Amino acid sequence: LSAHWRAGLSEKGDFVVVGSILVSGGNCAGEVRLPEGLTAIAPFAFARNSEITKIILPAGLCKIGDGAFWGCGKLEEICASSSLVIGERAFEKCVSLKRVSVHTAKAGRAAFAFCLALEEAELRGLEELEQRLFEGCSRLERCVCERARFMDSYCLSGCGSLKAFDLRRVEEVGSYAFQDCDSLEEIVLGDGLTAMGKVKKKNFSKNVPSFHQIKHIAFSGRKVLTDLYLSF
Predict the structure, then answer these.
(1) What end-to-end distance do the CA atoms of the chain give, in Å?
(2) How far is residue 204's CA from residue 214's CA, in Å, rounded to a whole number?
(3) Of 20, 56, 189, 206, which sits 20 to 30 A from 83 (CA to CA)?
(4) CA dihedral in degrees (8, 13, 45, 100; nearest 10)?
(5) Lowest mean pLDDT segment, chosen from 7-21, 53-67, 74-88, 163-177
(6) What's the pTM?
(7) Where on the phi/psi map is residue 159: left (φ > 0), alpha (ψ -120 to 50), or beta?
(8) What count of other Cβ atoms lies within 10 Å of the Cβ of residue 167?
């Protein structure tokens, strides 16, 4: 290790910290409160930790690195009081996580993919829903991303318990964004929508049957969708 790197290294209980970045917490267990003064959690800092049940993030924390909590199988709760940038796959396969409510400017690809117990997600401030963001969250019933403007492909793919989703601010919806959302009953679309899957707005109509052409693109596999509200 370089002398510069070693100079900033410190150990705080079960944590290894470099400057203001937490680089390792793999030995933590149960309810974990991260130390004050942190600005970031390094990639994979807690990955595969099978003992953490709750994580309390300090005020001032700005970034959670890629895969930081990947595969933390007993993690049930995240508590955050500041706005975060969440890296790719940061909480992927946290199979016990039940609820997420955070303010975030960015959440990377597959950040919450395959969180099999996740029932409710609220990502305040997020404008772009990245590819595979909630893929495979089969118990997800409520998902609120009120500022979302773009949805990438496979964003909610496999969310078989999701019944409704509000797209009134969304401008583009990627391919297979709602694939296998078999409980989906209601979608609300706004007048800013320009593309859904590979279908452009010029091909839209206010008649629900016209959306049969896109069911294999954005809604592939869905069986129940009954109401589609347009405000064009």
Answers:
(1) 60
(2) 10
(3) 189
(4) -120
(5) 7-21
(6) 0.83
(7) beta
(8) 21
